C-alpha cells in the first residue's frame, strides 16, 4: 500500500465536515494517524467512523481560540498518537455584512476563529516540531486572503492575516525543518457555500441557480471547487517530496483569482 505519511500524527481542526473532513480523509488515505479536533462531537465522531482502521482516529473537543482547551486537546492527542508531525488549521467562520452593519462583536469573532485560532494551534504544535527538526503546518486560508470583496471586510481581513501568519512562521521555522504553507480555496461545495447562496437568494430575490451563476461568473471552470480537491493539495504539501515548498499561498479556485 502506498502510505507516504505512515507513522505520522496529523491533527486537523474543524475536521467534522466540509473541507476539514475531506482533509482528514486524504491524510488517512496517505497513512497518517489522525486526530480530529472541533467543537461538535457528533459530527467529528461520525466522520471518524468513516476513516480506515489504520488512522486510529481520535476525536478531541476544543474551541481553537481557547488556549487552555487547545492545550488539553493537544495533550490528549499526543498521549494517543505521539508528537504531531502535521497540523492543519482548517477551522473557520465567515459572515457577509456591509461595513455599516459590521458590529465590533462580529468583527472580533471572525478574527478570533479564523486568525487567532490558527495562531493558538500553531503555537501549541510548532515548538515540538522545531525541536524534532521536522513538521508540516498547513493553514486553510481563502481567496479572500489574497483579494478583497464587498461585504466581507472581517473575513478578508482575517484570511489576509492567516496568509501573513503563514509567511512569517515559514521564515522563522524553515531552518528548523518545519514548513508552513497556506491553501486558499475559492467557493467550495460546503455548508459555508450553502449559507452564501441562501443569503444571495434572500437579499436579491434570485433563484438558487441564478445565485450560483453569479458566484461562478468569473470562474473559468464554471463550477465550484470540491472539498477533495482542496484536501489533495494539503496531503501533497505534507509529503516528503514537498519539503522545499514553504511560505506559499496555493490557490485552489478554478482560475478565478488569475483573471
TrEMBL record:
Any single GO BP term: monocarboxylic acid metabolic process
Record CDD domains: SDR_c
Gene3D superfamilies according to UniProt: NAD(P)-binding Rossmann-like Domain
Keywords assigned: Oxidoreductase
GO MF annotation list: oxidoreductase activity
Domain Ketoreductase, chain residue ranges per copy: 8-186
Family: Belongs to the short-chain dehydrogenases/reductases (SDR) family.
Protein name: 3-hydroxyacyl-CoA dehydrogenase
Taxonomy of the source species: Bacteria, Bacillati, Vulcanimicrobiota, Vulcanimicrobiia, Vulcanimicrobiales
Amino acid at each position: 500500500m502506498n502510505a507516504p505519511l505512515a507513522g505520522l500524527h496529523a491533527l486537523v481542526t474543524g475536521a467534522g465536515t466540509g473541507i476539514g473532513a475531506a482533509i482528514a480523509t486524504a491524510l488517512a488515505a496517505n497513512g497518517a494517524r489522525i486526530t480530529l479536533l472541533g467543537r461538535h462531537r457528533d459530527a467529528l465522531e461520525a466522520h471518524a467512523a468513516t476513516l480506515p482502521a489504520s488512522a486510529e482516529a481520535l476525536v478531541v473537543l476544543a474551541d481553537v481560540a481557547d488556549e487552555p482547551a487547545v492545550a488539553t486537546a493537544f495533550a490528549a492527542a499526543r498521549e494517543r498518537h505521539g508528537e504531531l508531525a502535521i497540523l492543519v488549521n482548517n477551522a473557520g467562520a465567515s459572515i457577509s455584512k456591509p461595513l455599516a452593519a459590521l458590529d465590533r462583536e462580529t468583527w472580533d469573532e471572525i478574527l478570533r476563529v479564523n486568525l487567532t485560532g490558527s495562531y493558538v494551534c500553531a503555537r501549541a504544535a510548532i515548538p515540538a516540531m522545531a525541536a524534532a527538526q521536522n513538521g508540516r503546518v498547513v493553514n486553510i486560508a481563502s481567496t479572500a486572503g489574497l483579494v478583497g470583496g464587498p461585504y466581507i471586510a472581517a473575513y478578508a481581513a482575517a484570511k489576509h492575516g492567516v496568509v501573513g501568519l503563514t509567511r512569517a512562521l515559514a521564515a522563522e521555522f524553515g531552518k528548523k525543518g518545519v514548513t508552513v504553507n497556506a491553501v486558499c480555496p475559492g467557493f467550495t461545495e460546503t455548508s459555508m457555500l450553502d449559507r452564501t447562496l441562501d443569503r444571495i437568494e434572500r437579499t436579491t430575490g434570485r433563484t438558487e441557480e441564478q445565485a450560483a451563476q453569479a458566484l461562478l461568473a468569473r470562474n473559468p471552470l464554471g463550477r465550484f471547487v470540491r472539498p477533495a480537491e482542496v484536501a489533495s493539495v494539503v496531503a501533497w504539501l505534507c509529503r516528503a517530496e514537498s519539503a522545499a515548498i514553504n511560505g506559499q499561498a496555493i490557490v485552489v479556485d478554478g482560475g478565478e483569482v488569475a483573471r
